[in-house]
Amino acid sequence: MNIFIADIKDLPHHWPRCVDHISRACDSTNGEMTIATNRDSVMKGDSWLIVVEDEYNNVLAAMTSHLMVCDTGLRILVIPSVGGDHMDEWADEFIDFVKQMRDMLLCDRIRGGGRKGWLRYLKQYGFREAYTVVDME
Fold first, then answer.
1. What is the pLDDT of residue 83?
2. Which residues of 73-112 are buried (b: 16+ CB within 10 A; e: fewer)?
3. Rounded Cα distance, 71 and 1, in Å
């Protein structure tokens, strides 16, 4: 298993390999993210592309992430959504990886988003529902 943040100079190689996973992740964001907005944010250096590969360099999962600093000083490593296959094969290592990112970036917490099923799965790692978001059109 190989989990890494794609170097910006290597994005032309990695982005096409990850685009299907990122696209599936965007589908669960209620239109708040698109493949284009993710790509632009990563290309500008405003967010990072995290790649999960198997031992044969096949991409199992991909996601974007960014640092959010609140007016209160709270630092949050935000992973808005994750797209991937065979999560049981890489989830443990992925959680360890993002915990290391959190510590390196001096963040107070890690925040993710997604469908309710994610919360049920991620509870085993200590994630909890922080608050509920409501929308009205």
1. 86
2. eeebbbbbbbbbeeeeebbeebbebbeebbeeeebeebeb
3. 37
Averaged over 107-135, what is the pLDDT?
83
87 is written with which tokens? Answer: 């999560």
Residues in Cβ contact with 31 at an 8 Å cutoff, skipping those fewer than 6 apart:
none
- Look at 21-25, 56-60, 64-68, 113-117 and tell me which has the smallest mean pLDDT: 113-117
- List 110's β-bridge partners, or say none: 77
Q: Supply 132's token pair.
A: 């509920």
Round the average pLDDT of the chain to a whole number and report it.
90
| Contact of 47 with 79, CB cutoff 8 Å | no
* Alpha-carbon distances of 32 from 17, 28, 45, 113, rounded to whole Å: 22, 9, 19, 11
CA distances from 61 to 4, 38, 74, 131, 136 (A): 11, 15, 28, 26, 31
- Do 49 and 64 meet the contact criterion of CB atoms below 8 Å apart? yes
